[in-house]
Specification:
Elements (H helix, E strand, L loop, with lengths): L1 H4 L6 H17 L3 H14 L4 H13 L3 H14 L4 H14 L4 H13 L8 H13 L3 H13 L22 E2 L1 H4 L2 H9 L1 H14 L5 E2 L5 E3 L2 E8 L2 E2 L1 H4 L3 H8 L2 H4 L5 E7 L3 E6 L6 E9 L13 E4 L2 E4 L5 E4 L5 E5 L11 H4 L4 E9 L5 H6 L4
Antiparallel strand pairs: 1-11, 2-4, 3-7, 4-5, 4-6, 6-13, 7-12, 8-11, 8-13, 9-10, 9-12
Helix pairs in contact: 2-3, 3-4, 4-5, 5-6, 6-7, 6-8, 7-8, 8-9
Length: 378
Amino acid sequence: MFQVLNLADVTDDLYMLCAERLVDRLQFRGWIKKSIKIQEATLSKFPQNVTLLKQYGLTFLILGQNERAEKIFKQVLKRDPENGHTLALYGFVLKISSENRLEESIDFLYKGVKSRDPQAQDARFYFHLGDALQRLDRTSEAYDVYEQGVRKGFFISKYQRSLYNVPNLKSRPWWSYAETTYEKYLKMFENEWKIIRDEALSLLDENRSQFKLEDERLTNKGDWRQFTLFVKGRKVAENCLRAPRTCSLASKIRPAATCTRGQIKFSLMRPGTKVWPHCGPTNCRLRAHLGLVVPSSSASAGRHSPRIRVANETRTWKSGRFIIFDDSFEHEVWYDDNNDNDNENSDQNLAPKFRLVLIVDFWHPDLTPEQISSLDPI
């Protein structure tokens, strides 16, 4: 196909066909930068083709070069202001680039999804439009968007909005130990919870910076950090050297240790933290939180225990016990605390200054071994 593009007498139709096929194959193989050269050569030959220009912008979006993608989508809209797919793409890139541009992103995402362009009818656009609305406290509008997504078949329900799903898996926000079918594994963790807690606390004493800030822009305010032990079914060797007993135990629990669509990690949250409502990416896992350090409520000290809402039910953690939920359902976390009380004798000063849990993801119990082996990691 390279040779065809260099022929002196190649027709425009054949050139375009070969260029599109070549870009598709190069990007499929991960050779994104090579594909850019083909796109640029094609654009120089067909400079008025807005579809080519839009695809060029999409390539930079794939590369994570959002500013470059934004500029290109803006050029497309100057030439074709009613291009529904580009309106949605432009709104999407505004939304993921900055919290300060949510209003602007909503305008473009709305225009895109309301257009008749079939390429704008994509679950991701409805997902991010609703999320932007929620972050601006326009909650009822957000749920209207999610309900539209349900009617179009993009989401399982207005609360369960994961994008990488296996059909017909049992769907409920909260799970009991017995319902998971993993009760014996959960008890294995609980029996060792103090050892697990002490390993996590030693990491904090050793060097708090080992807990990395949450990096998915899910934190509304405050301080939320993680220390990952397993990811995509693989042990993080360097971190497991620092928490050997926890990793040794986790390695024995195959539905968690082999979960290529999940993680095992310590999660640290400090007072004053609020996590945006959000959904996990897949319905293929259940998420279990083992309480390690859980501050209690104290009305006199102005302290509130951390809480988690999944769908329409709110619960809290207990030290040494699991709570289990399907994180493909919308969930959010609050850890409100009034730290203004300086009375040295107050129970506030005796209370822990953080919430610490072990997060363990398990394969959804309805998945067959054949289904599990066919799933791409997330």
